[in-house]
């Protein structure tokens, strides 16, 4: 009887299922290195808001983004969030921007550069 190595087959399937495409730069990466973003209705402002979902637990369709200011700017410029999340209305991306800048600041180690950009954008 011939034995097959099933662990290799499982590994191939698992790695394939966790690959996602960044809506900013359009490159594929493992979902653990991407930030999930969902559309949430904001009752107070009566508009859809792009909301970061770092735990990947919020309900609804998600868009994936490298948590870098460069990928965020590309996604905003291309209007990729609305297209990926399949919404017609424009999305407020200020929460995603704040999250990305906070994460960038934590990586840099407290550099003042990201906080300067946070006051410029809205």
From TrEMBL:
<dbReference type="InterPro" id="IPR007393">
    <property type="entry name" value="YlxR_dom"/>
</dbReference>
<dbReference type="InterPro" id="IPR035931">
    <property type="entry name" value="YlxR-like_sf"/>
</dbReference>
<dbReference type="InterPro" id="IPR037465">
    <property type="entry name" value="YlxR"/>
</dbReference>
<dbReference type="Pfam" id="PF04296">
    <property type="entry name" value="YlxR"/>
</dbReference>
<protein>
    <recommendedName>
        <fullName>YlxR domain-containing protein</fullName>
    </recommendedName>
</protein>
<feature type="domain" description="YlxR">
    <location>
        <begin position="20"/>
        <end position="92"/>
    </location>
</feature>
